[in-house]
Specification:
- The protein is 31% helix and 4% strand.
- With 220 residues, it is mainly alpha-helical.
- The protein starts with 8 loop residues before the first helix and ends in a 9-residue tail after the last helix.
Length: 220
């Protein structure tokens, strides 16, 4: 079972029914035909309600483990703490957030501490925390002005987009070093990730065109 944290209770019942014979009768003691069950998943990555997924079921003692133990067969629970995707700086920032109990609520359903061990030892990384961009009070337009003039408004989304564009321009102008490559940062090294396609993407494109001239390789 892959992505087992997203399996719903009905799917778990199906797996249990298919594997019951593994640990009963001759199936439990036939050395010539050893059958195994392998399930991998991380409850922290569960997509709640995805196809009826219930991550709490993944954490409960499965009947498979009970059957295996009763049949004197080996059953191992292996923790997933090593991360192969990210660097130490990012993982340390994530762990620092989830040190707090209120942050772990809804993520660490088993109440266990969230910790990550980086596989990419020695790779460069940096996490910057920026102040929140809050709305500002704006002056109302003159009441006698006809609504035909496009007014430039100030909003947190646009200000954040401009700050990102300025930060990119600053990195390029100062020839900041990309430690992983041992050379100055280039536009092709920069990727801006968004949670979804929204007005924020349009604001970033506008700011990049104005500030960074939408340099080749910059991905939004």
């Amino acid at each position: 079972m892959d992505e087992a944290q997203d399996s719903n209770p009905e799917q778990w019942d199906l797996v249990t029914a298919l594997t019951e014979e593994f640990f009963a009768g001759s199936g439990a003691h036939n050395e010539d035909q050893v059958r195994t069950v392998f399930a991998v998943g991380d409850v922290k990555q569960s997509i709640y309600s995805f196809q009826g997924a219930d991550p709490t079921v993944f954490l409960q003692p499965a009947s498979i483990s009970i059957s295996a133990t009763a049949a004197n067969q080996r059953f191992d629970t292996v923790g997933l703490h090593v991360s192969f995707r990210s660097v130490a700086a990012v993982l340390q920032a994530v762990d620092a957030v989830f040190v707090h109990d209120n942050a772990r609520t809804g993520v660490a359903l088993d109440k266990a501490a969230i910790r990550h061990i980086p596989s990419r030892i020695g790779d460069g990384g940096l996490v910057e925390l920026w102040p929140t961009s809050n709305p500002r009070s704006e002056d109302l337009p003159e009441p006698w002005k006809p609504p035909v003039e496009q007014l430039r408004t100030d909003n947190p989304r646009d200000r954040l987009a401009w700050r990102i564009a300025r930060r990119i321009r600053h990195m390029l102008d100062r020839n900041e070093i990309l430690e992983a490559k041992g050379r100055p940062i280039e536009p092709r090294d920069i990727m801006i990730l968004l949670r979804r396609r929204s007005h924020m993407m349009d604001a970033l494109v506008r700011a990049s065109k104005a500030r960074v001239s939408l340099l080749p390789g910059l991905i939004v």
